[in-house]
Amino acid sequence: MKKQRGFVFRCTGCGHEDPKWLGRCPECGEWNTLVETPVAASFTSGRSGGAKGIPPQSFPLSSIDPQEGKRISSGIGELDRVLGGGIMKRSAILVGGEPGIGKSTLLLQAAAAAVTKGRILYVSGEESAGQVRMRADRLGIGGEGIEICCTGRLPEIETILEAVKPVIIMVDSAQTLHTDEAGLVPGTVNQMKYCSWELISWTKEHDAALFLTAHVTKEGIISGPKTLEHMVDTVLYFEQAASGGNDGDSRFLRAAKNRFGSVDEIGIFTMGEKGLQAVADPSLLFLVHREGGLPPGTVIAAVLEGSRPLLVEIQALAVPAKGSMSRVFSDRIDSARVSRVAATLEKHLNLRLSDHDLYINVAGGIRITEVGVELALALALYSARTGIPLPSGTAVAGELSLAGELRPIRRLAGRIKAARSLGFEDFLGPIDSSAEAGTFAETAGLRAVGDLKSAITTLFK
Which of 22, 262, 413, 453 is the most buried if burial means most Cβ atoms within 10 Å? Predict the structure, then answer.
């Protein structure tokens, strides 16, 4: 092959390369960022050309062994649920979250609990080996089968990867990775893309799995290039519940992208002295048992988070608007959905809400996006506006149309079963053809209604 130049001048900001030094980068316009950098030697074999010079080959789909796509259990049920059943081999998983929320703790606990006979490499660019050991002792982790590497330099990490040959790689974090080939400043866009791609390529070639943690911006999105989210197979967000009855100890793990599973699943943890603990019965986090019944504006809703039915408490408050325009305050349910439900109530029940400020809250701090919460939201607004409480022991679920009709929802029988297990004998929901046919015995206690006016009449009259 033709011999390449020994040095090029690479911009530390954007990665632009130029054969000669320039005072200003022609790509990003920054001054004095071009640095003389050695060019890596050319290879006749490598990732792009196949091992030992063997050209890449294609294979018929029917000839591929399906066992190549098998999963490894992380040993943490909630994490396996969000990942779609376990850690997929040859996959890259990006975990983002606020500082101190527990990303490093989650990775260390998963490294200790993973069900595999191979070794696990934990790479920390933010902590020393002694700090990692102190955290492991606090969590009660022995560390058998876990190798620790405390560096952010990519060449050193690749050398250890070739020596250890781990089946799972934990890297904390993507912003600390750097190599001279991508510039001199760690954390730049070029550094993150180059280093992450090198690790992802090694992972897919060696039948391993990769976890990368990442910092987030003030807006709550993963910091760095958006390309990083396209490069990985799964993007997980670790969220903290709003402070409330659980003092903000609850953690929610959601998938924003998952090539090997659903993005609707949610993992629920509590943070304690021994680290993250999976929540066996999530509904207990979001419900408060009262002796005197529910106050006005409070409704128990049966919603779905992925395949799991949850019972949550929807709270509504309606007060006269302080200005000429009414406002909606809702951070756990989309404010556009609240406005649409309020408009439906005003149209079909003549309940004036346009001159009131509406406050919506979900007890426990969980964010609800499922359509089955709309009937509960409408009943909470009606109860808050009229001051009439709902009957105790009643749970509701249903999707509300603009015509005031209640549409069928998914897994109605599972919602009713979950409500009964927590002592809610009365369940109000939409008319379900399968329930009318007697297909599900679990729906025997359902009070089915066809529209919003019938729901209000059934509960409040």
Answer: 413
Which residues have a Cβ under 8 Å from the Cβ of 283 and sit 6 or more positions away? 310, 311, 312, 418, 422
φ and ψ at 75, to 5 degrees? 80, -5
Length of the chain: 461
Contact residues for 252 (Cβ-Cβ < 8 A; gap 6+): 238, 239, 240, 241, 266, 267, 268, 269, 366, 367
Q: Kindly tell me the burial class for residue 120, based on how many C-beta atoms sit within 10 Å of its own C-beta (0-12, 13-18, 19 or more).
A: buried
Which residue, among 302, 267, 288, 310, has the nearest Cα to 443 in the 3D structure?
302
pLDDT score at 211: 97
State pLDDT tens for residues 358-391.
999 998 888 899 999 999 999 999 999 999 999 9
pLDDT tens-digit map of 130-147: 999 999 999 999 878 899
Measuring CA to CA, which residue among 186, 238, 235 is closest to residue 210? 235
Coil vs helix vs strand at 59: coil
For residues 311 and 302, the answer to whether their CB atoms sit within 8 Å is yes
- Residue 23, classed as helix, strand or coil, is coil
Q: Split the chain (461 residues) into runs of 10 and give each run's mean pLDDT.
A: 61 80 85 79 42 64 69 93 92 93 94 92 94 93 89 94 95 92 83 94 93 90 89 93 58 92 88 87 78 90 88 94 89 94 95 94 88 96 94 93 93 90 90 54 75 92 70
Among candidate residues 76, 112, 379, the one with its CA nearest the CA of residue 238: 76
Neighbours of 238 (CB within 10 A): 22
Query: Which is nearest to 459 in space by CA: 362, 376, 355?
Result: 376
Q: Which residues of 1-11 are buried (b: 16+ CB within 10 A; e: fewer)?
A: eeeeeeebbbb
Q: Which long-range contacts (CB under 8 A, 24 or more apart) does 241-247 make?
A: 241/364, 241/365, 241/366, 242/331, 242/332, 242/365, 243/365, 244/363, 244/364, 244/365, 245/288, 245/363, 245/364, 246/270, 246/285, 246/364, 246/365
Report the DSSP pairing between strands 426-430 and 394-396: parallel
Single-letter residue type at 249: D
Q: Which two tokens stand for residue 172?
A: 């904390």
